[in-house]
User: What shape does this take?
Amino acid sequence: MLDILIAGGGYVGLSLAVSLKKAAPHLDVMVIDGAPEGAWKKDQRASAVASAAERMLDVLGVWDQIAPEAEPIRRMVITDSKAADPVRPVFLTFDGDGGDGRPFAHMVPNTAMVGALRGACDELGVVNRQSTMVETFKSGDHAVDVTLAGGEKLEARLLVACDGVRSRLRDAAGIKTVEFDYGQSGIVTTVEHERPHDGTAEEHFLPAGPFATLPLKNNRSSLVWTERTEDAERLVKGDDFLFEEELERRFGHKLGHLKVVGGRRAFPLGLTLARDFVKPRFVLAGDAAHGIHPISGQGLNLGFKDVAALAETIVEADRLGLDIGSLAVLERYQTWRRFDTFRMGVTTDVLNRLFSNDITPVRIARDFGLGIVDRLPSLKNFFIRQAAGIAGEADPRLLSGQPI
Amino acid sequence: MSETARTTIDQSEVDRFSAMAAEWWDPTGKFRPLHKFNPVRLAYIRDKVAEHFGRDPRGPQPLKGLRLLDIGCGGGLLSEPMARMGADVLGADASEKNIGIAKTHAAGSGVAVDYRAVTAEALAEAGESFDIVLNMEVVEHVADVDFFMTTCAHMVRPGGLMFVATINRTMKAAALAIFAAENVLRWLPRGTHQYEKLVRPDELEKPLVVNGLEVTERTGVFFNPLANQWNLSKDMDVNYMIVAKRPL
Assistant: This one.
């Protein structure tokens, strides 16, 4: 019998496997993923990894491998203006580090992160299987019986669903969600520009939603560009010339000529919160538990927090000889993570509603609000700590750079 | 055993726990408070044992090779984890029904525990001895505390440890552990605990000391309703635990 079966081989599932195996090598851990072998190498996206998550990746022994491909974000600039405004007044700038001199975040290509985590899985003896997924499962008193697509049967003490925001396993477990659809989509692409970005991330709050540029290696930036879903679809499917035109209008010319490199895709945005994170012998982690609006760039970091809290919960229960799949054990993880997730979900929801409109009084109020934030060091520090993912007292050990 | 022999068994208590036996392993059922309490008492026992016997508490199987008696084991909520931590466990309970539930559950979990429907006095009479004797949440349910503690003390090997956890006989305990827990919060079925059967620390310690044990630790355990978890505390007025050792 397996100890832990992880469904979903993205960064959440893989980092959970590494965290568990590193702290408790005797546990039998398997990761399965529906995508074919090598599909992960085609992901052209990059993710913002906050300093707390960087510390965790360091403890897991993979940061050294990721670092050469990671671009530090040294400055964050937030503006609030119409796209047509020739000069965009800057309302908020963050220069700072996430503690002990590290930049508060890095932009990391997904392939670098997933590649390093897969390598660590191999070294630690995690079984990693592609091209198969959980078809059905049934939780019993001592194990969860899993049937894979193709009919193969497995038994595990615990099944962890890391299968993304539209989690099939979450639905199969009968866990309901609370959902808000914003009618917005995020266009994700990469651009090359003439002049260096100097490690600056910018977030422009435009009427259709935030337009964020995040620094990558070699004069490139990753974009997350929010539009109403139908506009986003039109832009992504339309011709290159129109896309670059619209892009340039929003990006501005301060970094010189722009060129779109790599593909462009639109992802519908919404807030999806699972009502429960745990059931007997079943746990949700990452986007399967909470898909949040990317406005504050917290999705990935919430995922790492889940991993750190869940790994610590499981390993500590195992060290006490407890049944790692029992609800009594798993409830600790739920208590630990649900409030934080809810708070972050609501905060980003409010931010999005506040910024994604062009009503004059609201604009004045938020400009005024941001202006005040910029003038109050302690408040600003609070936002930096939130952005770096190092706020809160009861952080899991991995996020503080400690082994479990 | 003749009818006049001293016994530690209170038949009404045995009957009450037998009636709830099917719920032992349901963390949302009648034994929810015990499931909640389990991590803090397991960690306490593991850490004290590791310290005493020179083991690494975070390593695999820190209790390996130690013979352990879990007296009043119920459905095996402590026995199974102790066995997984490496101990050679004898789980004893006066209720046949509890032992049946415990055996079935351990078989399903694939954990080896020697469960027996037997009393402490029968084990002592048979000359059984242990490195660790666990006496957790039991003394408040026995018929003759002094005799029970004496019997258990005899089974602790030289260099061995005994753990006792129970509820103090104070007004605070009557208010919190009985009235609030059974009537207001409904954590426990009504009648789980009776005030006059609660035991003060000195009443436990006296028979231990008389029988050659040395009390090494005393700690309170307190429920924090905000964090929804149990923590160790200096306050021994309600729930408390003591550790005693038999010198080599």
Observations:
- The longest strand of chain A covers residues 177-193.
